[in-house]
Amino acid sequence: MRWIPSLCLMLLITGAWTPLGADDDGRTIWGDDLRSTLKAMKKVQRSLGVKSCLHCHVKQDGKVKYEIETEHKEIARSMYYAFVDTLANTGKARLEVGHDSTSVLISAVRKLKGEDAGIHLRVVLPAKNKGKEPTTLSRRIDLPGKDQPIECGTCHGGKLHFLTQE
Ligand code: HEC
Ligand code: HEC
Q: What is the C-alpha separation between 66 and 53, in angstroms, rounded?
């Protein structure tokens, strides 16, 4: 039964690739150490236009416990992997964001050349009532400037629900 240990090893490796929160060196998806993480977090907060760090983090005994997992932290992390990482590396990405018992499907395709160059976004909202069609919203976003990375602000530009709540 050699596959059992190798399966465990595989799970360990995939787990190690996407650590939740800071690793032993204080590295997060946002920065290589605490300082750069804090700097990046301020930028994320501004890019999304959310009121405070507590949109994603929680307080316990009067102190913010940044390492505690929350639903919004998880969504932000998936956004990061889908759109900052996968979209930048492969030119397309899709992500399902759960809301109560329904889910919103967000996808993006990057087009580098031509008249319609840009990031083409599509959001599919579930039907409000049974028998109704789901709603699809789309939008083209300008590509970031030359040699500039795709960041939260590239699409969000200071607003969390920039497509569904205009
Ligand atoms: C949109 C959601 C979001 C907002 C807003 C946000 N954070 Fe975070 N924060 C995250 C996520 C996701 C992680 C986990 C990163 C990882 O898994 O590598 C994180 C991790 C951190 C960590 C590291 C915690 C650890 O695991 O040790 C610190 C410190 C932190 N955030 C500070 C802040 C501060 C300060 C603000 C406000 C300026 C802020 N964050 C705003 C999503 C957010
Ligand atoms: C390629 C475009 C794109 C990029 C880059 C992007 N997002 Fe988003 N994000 C979207 C779209 C589209 C929505 C849905 C907007 C709406 O609801 O109007 C969204 C929604 C969200 C939501 C709300 C999800 C919900 O419905 O509860 C969060 C939180 C979020 N993004 C965080 C981030 C963070 C953090 C980053 C940077 C790491 C980021 N996004 C980068 C396209 C993007």
A: 9
Q: What is the CB < 6 Å shell around ligand 2?
A: 44, 48, 72, 75-76, 79-80, 83-84, 87, 97, 104, 106, 108, 119, 121, 123, 150, 152, 154-156, 160-165
Q: Could you tell me the pLDDT band of residue 165, with boundaries at 50, 70 and 90?
A: confident
Question: What is the average pLDDT across 11-28?
Answer: 71
pTM above 0.70, yes or no: yes
